[in-house]
Each structure stands twice: as structure tokens, then as C-alpha cells.
Amino acid sequence: MTHTLGTSVFPLLEPLLEQVSKPIQYVGGELNSTVKDWNCGGHGPDGQELTTRWALMYPDAYEVGVPNQGVMILYEVLNERPDALAERTYAVWPDLEALMREHQVPQFTVDAHRSVRDFDVLGLSFSTELGYTNMLTALDLAGIPLHAVDRTDDDPIVVAGGHAAFNPEPVADFVDAAIVGDGEEAVLAVTHHIGAWKAEGMPGGRRELLLRLARTGGVYVPSLYDVSYLADGRIQRVAPKADAPGVPWRVSKHTVMDLDAWPYPKQPLVPLAESVHERMSVEIFRGCTRGCRFCQAGMITRPVRERSITGIGEMVERGLAATGFEEVGLLSLSSADHSEIAEIAKGLADRYEGTQTGLSLPSTRVDAFNIDLANELTRNGRRSGLTFAPEGGSERIRKVINKMVSEEDLIKTVAAAYGAGWRQVKLYFMCGLPTETDEDVLQIADLAKKVIETGRQVSGRRDIRCTVSIGGFVPKPHTPFQWCAQLGNEETDARLAKLREAIRSDRQYGSSIGFRYHDGKPGIVEGLLSRGDRRIGRVIEQVWRDGGRFDGWSEHFSFDRWMNAADVALSELPVDVAWYTTRERGETEVLPWDHIDSGLDKDWLWADWQDALDETEVDDCRWTPCFDCGVCPQMGTDIEVGPTGKTLLPLTVLGAGREAMLAASGTADHQH
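Above: the chain's sequence. Below: its structure in C-alpha cell form.
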């Protein structure tokens, strides 16, 4: 039976759904989802198709992927174009995977249940490297060859994006291209090039299209570059191939400057099944210049670009009207740093007075928190716990990582919170930071005890709780710590065991302190994947062939499977897992991601690494003179911050203002 491109495979899928857990995640039809005609772009004079079709994948389970802002934004941006369509696909759980293989059902989209292989582009958004094995499952189920070199003109172009794409080398064998930075304008540019190539009758096939994309300077095509190695395993150089003229030595990241011009998502998706975030989210600014040395997200998203207070107000208004959610998350890397956060919180609280609409800041800096802000956030909604991230247990280690928060700051902040009626606080730390000793980590216990003692004093109550949550530190590309040695998993576990003992052994405070931590093993695998080069592709493939799936889920993760696969896959090479993880790099070493231009100057990063070793702190360049990190001049960008001085009028919700505003923004009669 011949398959017609773009037809639904749901008749094949439906009988399998009663045999799997949570079948609702595979049926689609969410509020605000979009299904477009397969030929929405029409045909050219010679009959060639003029539609560019994207399958967008968040390579994890539906419940994790569906609230993802990045995918939601690209889905909407692409579907607004008359000559493009975008549908979503997620990783299927092993129970459905087995049935799909047995009944020959291909990887499908949840929107119209079309086969992923029918699309022009499979775009994957990697926020973590632990999704790589899920990508291989999806490619295999889709009938797309795992290796880019084996694909034909009938296969989609496989494109990686997201934060992990800033080092695309470990998946260079499997992806045709990688795009780094903001996706809004980038996906439209790629759509334009594919559309033009199709309109011309697809000259030169797949390779010509990839060459065109690579020559834009903003799309990295691994197959057009050669990597040579030194005898000791280090990279000698990464260079464009001789037969690929016009391909740049370095590929630049994309930066959207005017966030108010991109008020997405306008119609946020409302998941059918339970998801990890039951709220509507608005990104209030992008980028961060605090300069925390461990934080890849802060480094690669520079410079800071704020959304205006009025732009935020309109997005909240429209999003609540479109979804019916009762909580709004004000997202960014450090939301309390918005230059008008107090006005935003008060304005939104005033506007939604008398409704059940709550506001939340997912990430609050210790030194940016104040009770006025907290009270505005909880005025209409429920009072949830507060989370703060000192990151390092001792004053010394906080200087190393440039997290400028003193113990006094933290105690003052929690005193204010407990005094204002909060009963519990969560503190987030990392273990395994550069130069860290047991003593640095054991100071976390002292800090937690002081927090409890302070809470009891200011509230006059005994039911004060503090949860200490600890993650293992993984060095990331494009940060000052990209050169450092990662702490081994056994050392990490030993250090955490000492800390747990120090907390538990204290009879006065131990029972009031919760302790959550991850063991060191997943961090070593994440470290291998985040700083690996092309040779790691064979490890990923071996793990996948050995049954590796959903490596970000502790119940599916197997450290032994990864280590055994690495032993096999790297056996004939001068490198091993320790070489990629617990080895310190030198200043002159060519790093696998050096040809991906995040805008940051490598010399500046190295100088900042030396400052870390000297325990020297560096201020936030938003409020001080420039430190020459390189981003602004190189990217032709600038820090975009307020304040605008405008206020949010409490105009709407319960009154007639909502219709007026929605009509003005053209969404009142939005059809779906």
C-alpha cells in the first residue's frame, strides 16, 4: 500500500493506544493547537510545492515537552506564515515504541498524526544533552537514516537548536544542521531558503540546500567541516571542507533584539494531559549579565533584552484569555532583575485583584528579593514556597563562581520571608565546583541551621522548614569553566554523604531541614556529552543500541550502560570518559565548540577563569562599565533595558476593557 505524503497515520495508531500508559499524550487536539492544510503554500507554475513543513520535536515525554516555551514560540511563528506549517512531535515511551515497531507505525506528530518523515525539516530543541538518545529513537521510528551522510533527498533536514546546540559536535553524525541562539528569526530565514530552493525545483538536491544554509553564516552544517586531531587526542583544527566554497570558519548565534516585536506565544497551548508546569508563562526579559561563571544560559544569551512593562501586560492579558490558566509565570534567568519588576508585579496584582490569578517568579536572586515584591506576587494567588539559589555553601566558593551573595544577605532575606508569614524556604546549591573542598560543602549545613534558627526567632514558631537541594556541577561550553576539571562521581558522592551526615546529626535542627541531592553519576554522562567532540557520537549510538532511552529520567538512566558503551566505542582512540570529564584543559587547546560563535571573546573567558581561581568577583555590566566580553560589538547588539516609566492600567479583566484590548490586537475573533 503506497503512503501519500501528509496523510494521517492515526488509523494505525489508534488501536495501539488502549495498550499503553497515558494514551492521552498521543492524541493531540489541545486548545490553541493548529492543523494546517498540507499544501497551504500552494504550487508554482511548474507544479512544484511551495509549502515548507516543519516537524518540531522536544526530545522528551509530552508532559515535559508541551509547556516548553521555545517550541511553543516557533510553532506559532511558523504557523503564522501562509506558506509554512509546523506540527509537534515528542518522544514516545518505551511501551508505545515497542508497539509502533511491531505494527510499523512511524514517528508521528500529535497535531495531525502525520509521519515525521513526510516533513521538510525535523527541528529538535535540546535544552539538555540527555535527550540525544531520544533523538535516535525518533529518527529510527520515522524511517530516517540515523547518520546524516546516509540521507537522501526524500528525507527531512534534521536541525538541532536549543542551549545544547552551542556544542553540536557530539551529535554531528546525526544532525544535518545546527542553529544557535534565538530561534524566532532563524526559523523564518531557514523557511525562506527552503521555500526558494523548492520553488526553483530543488536544484542540486539536499547538498545544495545545506550549502545555501551554511553560507548564510548562521547555520552550522557539520558535514561541510573537517576535524583533524593531534596524536594525544586533542583537536588540531576544525575547518570548512575544500569542496564547500563560501562556508564560514565560524558560525554566529542569532539574537532577537526587540522582544516587544515578538510577543509570543500569543495563544499558549493548554495540555490535555497533566504536564510539569500548569501555568501560562511570559518571558519578561532574555539574557543575563550577572556573570555567574557556571551558568551557560547567562553567558550564551547575552546581552540583556527587556520586554516593556506594557508589552508584558498585553501578553499576560491575551494569554489568560486564550488559556484559562490561573497562574502566570514571569520567566527569565533572573526575573527579579527586570528594571521595572516592582511596577510589573504591582500592576499585574492590581489588574487581577478579585480574581484567582496568581503570579510566580520561578527564579529569585537572594539580593533582589524583597517582601513588597513577594506580597504583590501572592496577593491574588496561593502562597507557595520560596526558592533561593546561593549555589555555593561558603563565602569563598561564591567568590570563585561570581555569585555575589553574602551569608548576611541570605539571612536577612529569609528573616524577611519567615517574618512575613512564609513557613518554608528552599535553598539550591551545587557540589563539585572548581577549587571546592569538603569544608566549602559542609558550610551548607551551617547555613541551613542558621536559616532555621532565624526563622524560628522572627516568626516565634517551631514549624519552620528549609529544604536544601543539591545538584552536581557540570562544566559547560562558552563559560569560564569550560576548561576546568569536573569532579568525579565517587568524590561527589563522598562529599554529599559527609554533608548529609552533618545535617542529620544535629538534633536541634536536623528534623527541620530537608535534604535532596542527585548522585554524581548522571553528571559525568552530562559532562561527557556537553564537552564532547564528534568522537562521542559513536558512544551515544552504542548506548542507544544497548537500549538507552529517556536518560534524563532517573528510572531509565543507566550509568553502567554509558560507561560500557564508552569503553567499547572509544577503545581504539587515545581518549576515554575521564579525558572528556575530569581533565583540566590548557589555554591553547582547541575546544570542540570554538567554531561556534556565541559572541563571547575566548580571551575574556580565559581571563575570567583566572579571576575565578584568584577568587576575584566581577560586577554586572548592566549597571557598571563594560568588561569587553565581546558580545555587543561582535553581534552588533546592545543591552536593552528600561525603565520605560509607563504603568499598567488596571483596565480590564472584570470590565469591558478586555474585549477592547483583544480587538485592538486582532485576537478577539481568532479562529480555531
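The mean pLDDT is 91.
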